Amino acid sequence: MKRCPFCAEKIQDEAIKCKHCGEFIDTSGQSPFTENDTKWYFRKSFIVFAILTVGPLALPLIWFRPETTRAWKIGLTTGVLVLTWVVSVATLDSLHLLRQYSRMFQGFLPVEPR
Ligand SMILES: [Zn+2]
Fold first, then answer.
1. Rounded distance from Cα 33 to ligand 1 centre (Å)
2. 17 forms bridges with which residues in the sheet?
3. What are residue 10's DSSP bridge partners?
4. Around ion ligand 1, which residues have CB less than 5 A away?
5. How many whole angstroms from 30 Cα to the centroid of ligand 1?
6. In sequence order, what are the residues at sequence separation of 6 or more whose Cβ sits closer than 8 angstroms to the Cβ of residue 68?
7. What is the pLDDT of residues 25-57, one digit of tens each?
8. Planar angle of CA 43, 54, 49, nearest 5 degrees
9. How many angstroms is it from 17 CA to the middle of ligand 1?
């Protein structure tokens, strides 16, 4: 038995509604819309982590997530694709630069004496 926080009458521990005053008892704030109800792979933190690690491969997670609105899905997809493009261009650029550097160094290397 516990006491109703509104009328202080004794009620059942499992009660979610007081039979004396009709108030709803807060059972540790478990509403069906909390993050706890969301599947772990649909959590915001996991999706952010997935995008940062596998990039566009994480996009289906966003699209299958029921809480995300269509506008957000389109926006996030565009954002991730642009980010992927920028990163790959930057990677190719630095590879090209590295190749140029190595060619330059090879040209300046002194000829080994016999
Ligand atoms: Zn009550």
1. 25
2. 24
3. 3
4. 4, 6-7, 18, 20-21
5. 19
6. 62, 76
7. 876 654 444 545 678 888 888 988 998 888 888
8. 30
9. 8
